[in-house]
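Example: Cytochrome d ubiquinol oxidase subunit II.
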Amino acid sequence: MELNILWFWIIAAMFIGYFVLDGFDFGVGMSLPFLGKDDLDRRVIINTIGPVWDLNETWVIVAGASLFAAFPEWYATMFSGFYLALLVILLALIVRGVSFEYRHQRPESVWKARFDLMIVVGSAVPALLWGVAFANVVQGVQLDAGHNYIGTFFDLLNPYALLGGLTTLLLFFTHGVVFISLKTEGDIRQRAQKLAVKAGLVTILVAASFLLWTTLVFGSVATAVFAGVAAAALIASFLANLRGSEGWAFTLMAATIAFAVLTLFASLFPDVMPASNDAANSLTIDNASSTPYTLQVMSWTALFAMPVILLYQGWTYWVLRKRVSRKTVTAAVDSAVH
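Written out as structure tokens, the predicted fold is:
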């Protein structure tokens, strides 16, 4: 396999890692108004991701840096053409991170409520806009002969892209709610399981529509296979939720997101940024990639670094595998006070 093709799929794997891991972070943040009956409930919900959300978020940095190094033309076109959307995502991520750290710094309920709202917004906006961005990449955008985006911001808000954004929003929301049921005890766990079932029904309808549209209009045989696996995993996750098997439900939701991302990348291949106005202006794996020497250095670096990163992250989740409850949060607060 040529190195530029290999790195196309490595970057796909990195975005899978980001959307699976930070995806449930987004879902947890968006669930606060639905599952947080009081401040203690909300603390429990936030504590489910408290030790790992910043680690999960680093995957987008790794993916972006790899994209810049392996496909600089793709990176330049996408980040300049989608500048406003990506800036909004960045600001939302900053707002969310600040809110996690500041909401507990003062006891006033108004103070906490404002930061809780910022967590919800800072989670929902990226969840929506990532789907919009990737759907536009698959669909193709207007590029000139120099591979520069010549459309407007509102051109990106087309029906297919908005459906893609709604799909990622709902997938991440359901993924996050399932994670809460996996990581909590008592009443919150039961309410999260029920909400996951309700959200799962809507998610199946929306995601199936988006995957079908992608497969019929932009897809190939590989796209159809990946989309079919994603749909099957999503339905299986819904059934696992009905049985109260949150471990299987979470695993199958992760598989759903992984194969949905593979569906999008398979729809792209061998392009990386199709030009909707003139196919001759499209960016491909060949004309957007770095030199063979650069890709060789990156490949050796990834060969040694990625196993270490994966082992460290796996160890982190193993150490922090215990469930969170109102009792443990109250005990932690009392201990901090005394």
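Residues 186-218 form the longest helix (33 residues).
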